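Narrative summary of target 7.
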Amino acid sequence: MTIGAWLDARRPAPPENLAARVRRALGPSLERPESDVVASCLGAVEKLLLSLRDDPEAGREVALDLLAADALVTYAFEAAAEDPLTLADVAQMAMWRVGQVAVELEP
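Modeled conformation, tokenized:
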């Protein structure tokens, strides 16, 4: 199963505009195998947050992007929960990757 098919199987389904934004953030990763959900979602979150951080004009219009980032993190943890023995490692990796977005702001 691909990541795209895995997303299609999630219930309840997200609103259409949010689902479309999540898919756009994942891009070509949608064709990767389901086993790559965690890494692909966290990579998409990182890229999305970096683009928002670097946009000096960002305002309320980026709310959907922030919701997509939240959904991608949720999907990463949902996939990780399928193997509870790796959940702590995924949590640590997620905190590190998302934290790096803020660390790069340091002068």
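Residues 48 and 59 are 15 Å apart (CA to CA).
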